[in-house]
Task: inverse folding
C-alpha cells in the first residue's frame, strides 16, 4: 500500500463495565475467547477479532498499522485529526478523525508484510 496505512482485523471496545461486557460477548453472542489478560479479553468473531479492554469508555476503536507511528501521527494531526491518547513506549496512539471515527495507530510488524 503506497500510503503506509494498513488495517488490522482488530476492533477494541474499552469499557468500565468490563465483566458484564466480557460475559455478554462470551455468552449472548457465543464468541470464542482467544486471548485473556488482566485488563483485556480477545474474542474471535470471524472477519474481525474483538477486544474488550478495561478502562474509560470511548466507543469502538479500529486499528491501522504503519511503519512509523510518529510520522503517521503527525500526518493525521496535520490533516485535522485529534490525538486522544498515546503511548510511545508501545508505540501507539489513538486518534479521532474529522468525521468521528476513532482508531489506534500501531506499528506494522515488518515480518508480517
Result:
Amino acid at each position: 500500500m503506497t500510503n503506509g496505512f494498513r488495517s488490522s482485523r482488530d476492533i477494541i471496545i474499552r469499557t468500565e463495565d468490563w465483566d458484564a461486557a466480557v460475559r455478554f460477548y462470551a455468552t449472548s453472542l457465543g464468541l470464542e475467547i482467544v486471548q485473556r489478560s488482566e485488563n483485556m479479553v480477545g474474542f474471535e468473531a470471524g472477519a474481525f477479532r474483538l477486544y474488550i479492554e478495561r478502562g474509560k469508555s470511548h466507543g469502538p476503536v479500529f486499528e491501522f498499522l504503519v511503519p512509523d507511528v510518529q510520522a503517521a501521527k503527525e500526518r493525521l494531526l496535520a490533516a485535522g485529526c485529534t490525538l486522544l491518547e498515546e503511548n510511545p513506549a508501545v508505540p501507539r496512539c489513538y486518534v479521532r478523525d474529522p468525521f468521528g471515527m476513532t482508531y489506534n495507530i500501531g506499528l506494522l510488524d515488518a515480518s508480517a508484510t
The beta strands are 6-15, 32-36, 40-44, 49-54, 61-66, 82-87, 92-96, 102-107. Residues 6-112 form a domain with the 2,3-Dihydroxybiphenyl 1,2-Dioxygenase; domain 1 fold (CATH 3.10.180.10). The two ends are 10 Å apart (CA to CA).
